[in-house]
Amino acid sequence: MNFLKRVFSTVIGIIVFLILCFLGILAIGMLFGSGQDEMVKPKVNSVLELKLDFPIKDYAGKIVFPEYPFLDEHEKNGLFNIISAIEYAKTDKNIKGISIDNNFINAGITQTKELRKALQDFKESGKFVVAYADIFTQKDYYLSSVADTVYINPAGMLEFKGLYSEHLYFKDFQEKTGLKMEVIRLGKYKSAVEPYLDNVMSDNNREQINAYLSSLWTEIKNDISVSRNIPVETLNTIADSLLGRNPNLALTNGLIDKIAYHDEYVYAIKQAIGVDETKELETITIKDYAQYAATKIPVNYSASKIAVIYAEGDIIYGEGDENTIGQGTMTKSLQKARKDDKIKAVVLRINSPGGSALASELIWREIELTKKVKPVIVSMGNLAASGGYYIACNADKIIAEPTTITGSIGVFGMLPNGKTLADNIGINAEQVKTNENAVTYSFFEPLDDMQRAFIKEGVLDIYDLFTKRVSDGRNLTRDQVEAIAQGRVWTGADALNIGLVDELGGLDLALKYAAEVAELSEYRKVEYPIFEKDLDKILESFGIVKAKETLLKEELGEEQYKMYKKVKAISEKKGIQLLFPFDTEIK
């Protein structure tokens, strides 16, 4: 009898717990929902504050929770939401101008260039763009140089020195720890695995890095030269001698217009818009304004649609999410676009360093099927390299920005090996097998000749398939592809000259071409993917995983945590990889 009582009480306890959990989630959802209703609106004589210190993604993403729709998320802080908001601000009578105030932009060079173009267009309305910083990073200055007036704090700093990138090499580390990587690669420029093979940079790798950094720097200098009316040669001299390193030098050399404190900057804006100096300056952040502008931009009710499908992040084998490209979400998106008769064309916006070869091929196939039904135009963002180029190469037209990083047509396979480490700490692994090749790979044993031959064969097959896809998609001979492949990285400007892309421009140009090919005089844009979340993902979104990451950061420190994330990412990659050669942090 006591046993039955205990069972009954346990069951009742579980039911009560589940009810409380449900009510808790419902309360959180209602709280989120009520917060979303309280939209911030610009007041009279407002200044739009362009602070872009949050991670800028091309697509903010639409996330739906089928079981809990009150938790659905459809933020408007993606790159093109921001650009649309700047466009709308041109005609918003409440917005008098734009202030770029201590920005610390968190975006890629290509995204920064797109934002810069939006600001140039905004200025044509007659409204002002001004910029202020205590410290101008080089990327911040690139964006801010488009402003009518550029201010800096009297004790501030301005970085204008040219570009560089830094790459870590692990050969000695492997030997000291006993943990090494078994590497097989194809392409003399395919240097994603180079750090595990040597302690110094190869000449081929140095050649390609120098080439694409020089191309990016040329683009940045040309844009600044036009905005600031400074000859390109002079900008090179300024960079070489660091002639913008302090406010006085920056002013003398024409990089900035005024040295002032922040309160003086705010006072100048008040004067410009006729606000009394004793009153607060009304501002609205770009995040809030983008959300507001999305409700005000006139909706095109045309029956004809163009689908914009965003492929953003590493390519993985699996479903994918808002941070990764999986064949699961991409297949669903392409199939929806293909089967919807109202969708007349597809624009694939790619911002990816590549990843899984298998997933890239599966996405390529869906694009090939879609092409038979309606045109597919590719727009490249910061990156469309390796696997990112694989899924682009069969499009009807490829459009890239001059600063896009693309190409990297090469393949590698990499497996961690801990044989020496295991020996050093007294671990021995013994295998028992029924057939000669039953053991294809063991972390505790080095690859033997036969295993290495099998992996190399797979890498060769993928490389052959990759180059064939490029050859067929771009109408190039295999010899022509081989001459520009080998894992070589190109900027969009260089890729145009060698036939990897068709034209230079942004998403707007891709949409224009899509409309022309589909013979549309008007259309409305629909965006994919739509990401579905389950209960586990709901719990994750409430901070359980984030809390773990925060703890790791606190224990390891920022730099060590970055290394941990890199090692973890490598260990999670399955199969043969089509991946951009190295981390692309350009400084």
TrEMBL record:
Annotated keywords? Hydrolase, Membrane, Protease, Serine protease, Transmembrane, Transmembrane helix
Annotated ranges, domain Peptidase S49: 122-275, 370-520
| Catalytic center residues | 190 (proton donor/acceptor), 386 (nucleophile)
The signal peptide, as residue positions, is none
Predominant subcellular localization, coarse grouping = membrane
Subcellular localization, as worded in the UniProt entry: Membrane
Which molecular function terms from Gene Ontology are attached? serine-type peptidase activity
- GO biological process, alphabetically ordered: signal peptide processing
Transmembrane spans: 7-32
Q: Which CDD domains does the record cross-reference, listed alphabetically?
A: S49_SppA_67K_type, S49_Sppa_N_C
Q: Which family does it belong to?
A: Belongs to the peptidase S49 family.
Q: Output this protein's name.
A: Signal peptide peptidase SppA
Q: What is the lineage of its organism?
A: Bacteria, Pseudomonadati, Bacteroidota, Flavobacteriia, Flavobacteriales
